[in-house]
Predict the 3D structure of the following.
Amino acid sequence: MTAHRSLQFPVPFPPSKVKISRATPDLLVLTDLGAPLRMTGVIAFIISGAFVVGAIRSPAPVVIPWVAALVLGAGSIAMILLPQRVTAVFDRSSRTLRISRRSIRGSTLDEVDFRRISSVIAEGSRSSVTAPATWRVCIVLQDGTRVPLTSYYDSSTTHMQAAAAANEFLGLPPVTPESPVAQGDAAAPRIVTKRPPSIFVLSVITIFAIVFAGFGVRLLLVEWHRLTVSLPTRAYVLSTDVQTVRSSGRNSSISYRPVVLYRFRVDGRDYTAQSVTPLNESRGGHWAFDLVSRYRAGDSVTAWYDPARPQTAFLRHEWSLMPLVFIAFPLLFSAIALFAFRKARTTGGTTATAQHG
């Protein structure tokens, strides 16, 4: 190994990426806080919140915002809480590299003798041939095995600087960063890591499933009440229309609600209502326009009203699939997650192998 030279790299690097947290003649410490994934999770959580607000403000139950909030909410919390804090300590006194990984799932510690290290590289990757390059720091062992410090890539060039600093500390020749390889290229060496999923991930998914299934149960109970207590009466159609229901937010979704204005009399008093279905729901345009086409101004129809609140009325005395969607989708989602969790648990602990094309 060559004689030690002073490191020529700024300390520290930007905290949102891989950084050199300590650099002395006998110690080099690289850390990664997982900030890129956490920030992505925060953004996804804000977007999921926007979907929830849009669904709450919607004048009628809309499925798409709630489903989007379920998926984005579970994913965002996982991205915020699950990324590991990685610390790689190059210790000249013991001639050992210690890599610790800590997260809410637990912690691991790996030790590698300096003599087993061939080089430290900035491993590049692309999602496609034309996509921007992303990087991560990777330890290359003498037998060709690669041990990445992080499981994910990001676009920061500080990975190249950190790899160069590690090579200089170890007295190894400088290594040119690898050309980014498009995912799926069989010629690219890869590390395949299998880790049983955390019970925390399953818990997050289950909590979101319970929340959204609970909302579906509430809709089902409301619909059941209205269908069982409502009484029929003669009504007269005044006008028809189809309203556009747009959820709030930049990527708002659009649905359509059938509106039929009709008048009816209960106990000698006239009332008007415009709900067609018990839940006054909105769906696709074809469904809404098809319902509206069944009514024309002047038609005599049967309306169903709540004796306790006669102004609450509707025309279609039939069950809707919407509550069942809210109940079935999250339960199916959590069932799939549970199946994947149990299957992965049967494979045992963490393993890592190198694959070469």
In short: Residues 199-229 form the longest helix (31 residues). The helical segments are 35-57, 63-81, 158-170, 199-229, 285-292, 322-345. The first strand starts at residue 19 and ends at 24. Confidence is low (pLDDT under 50) at residues 1-16, 183-197, 347-357.
